[in-house]
Design a protein that fits this description.
Layout: H1 7-33, H2 43-67, H3 74-80, H4 82-117, H5 122-129, H6 132-151, E1 157-158, E2 166-167, H7 170-204, H8 211-244, H9 250-277, H10 279-289, H11 302-310
Antiparallel strand pairs: 1-2
Helix pairs in contact: 1-2, 1-9, 1-10, 2-4, 2-6, 2-9, 3-4, 4-6, 4-7, 4-8, 7-8, 8-9, 8-11, 9-10
């Protein structure tokens, strides 16, 4: 079997150099703003914050156990102690963090639809009034429960010290790729349906949209741009699932080699979406970079006010 290409990993490194530090700064700015404004303590920003944390952890874990697994000294350690879930975590973590971020985009998309379209519904009210710890628990527990199917597998090993490729049983590969394809497909479907329903609502109420609702729309566009990256991951798992059904192992390793690019797009698009499509946050982000104090007057409590704004539309 030919060695899988290494260039996707190099592209991932190039993407990581500017994107990972930028993402960390965006996260720090979000945490800072939560100390000054109720806007950034709302359900939307709490979910978004968890999504940012999941992305950053996923990238750091991927770099640590996959990207630099060939570093002399480190690869000997990984190879020697691979039976202590190191080889298994190298493989299983890919699906674990994928499901966490799938849950995140679903929660964000459904939240956008509910807050803008049906703000007075009892479900919307409960979600908006949920405490931070409740949101955090739901965000992390739901995908973790889904991931138990993957995390319980331990029958993995590195093929050789020279290559450090993870070898997995074919039934496990087939099951996991099919499961990932189904979950990513369901994620895209739920989000697309949410945005189509939201688009229909906004189309009917274009004349009555206020400035506060315009801010809510901008937050929806921010999430919609992030959704585009999931379609890249969806295409990736279509091919991965197809090759896992065949007897030829070569394409499976090739697709695994291409994973860093799909994973990098999925993670690193989010900070750029936030900065380019969230003008309120972008202004505060620039002030943070300049080490200036936060201007409370510039922070709009849009999400919290959406309930009262919507009364004008009915």
């Amino acid at each position: 079997m030919d060695s899988p290409p290494a260039w996707p990993l190099y592209i991932y490194y190039v993407m990581s150099v500017p994107s990972l530090p930028l993402y960390i700064i965006v996260l720090i700015c979000l945490l800072r703003l939560r100390c000054y404004s109720k806007t950034y303590k709302t359900t939307f920003y709490t979910i978004l914050l968890q999504h940012c944390i999941a992305d950053i952890i996923a990238m750091i874990v991927f770099i640590t156990i996959w990207g630099i697994r060939m570093v002399p000294g480190l690869k000997e350690f990984y190879f020697r102690y691979q039976e202590y879930y190191i080889a298994a975590w190298t493989y299983n973590s890919i699906y674990f963090f994928l499901y966490i971020r799938c849950a995140g985009i679903v929660f964000l998309s459904i939240h956008r639809y509910l807050v803008i379209s049906v703000p007075h519904h009892s479900i919307t009210m409960k979600i908006q009034e949920a405490s931070t710890w409740q949101i955090v628990i739901v965000y992390w527990v739901v995908p973790t429960l889904i991931s138990i199917v993957v995390l319980k597998d331990t029958d993995f090993h590195y093929d050789a010290l020279e290559t450090m490729e993870v070898v997995a049983p074919r039934p496990v590969i087939t099951r996991n790729t099919l499961m990932a394809l189904i979950i990513v497909a369901m994620t895209c479907l739920v989000c697309v349906v949410s945005y189509l329903a939201l688009w229909r609502f906004l189309r009917k109420h274009t004349a009555g949209i206020s400035k506060s609702l315009q801010r809510e729309k901008h937050l929806a566009f921010q999430v919609l741009a992030l959704l585009c990256a999931f379609f890249v991951m969806f295409a990736y798992y279509i091919f991965q699932n197809y090759f896992s059904q065949t007897q030829n192992t070569g394409p499976i390793y090739t697709m695994r080699a291409l994973y860093p690019i799909a994973n990098g797009i999925l993670s690193y698009i989010n900070p750029f979406c936030i900065l380019l499509l969230n003008r309120d946050f972008s202004r505060q982000f620039l002030r943070t970079l300049k080490c200036e104090s936060v201007r409370i007057s510039e922070i709009q409590v849009s999400t919290m006010n959406s309930h009262s704004v919507q009364r004008k539309l009915f």
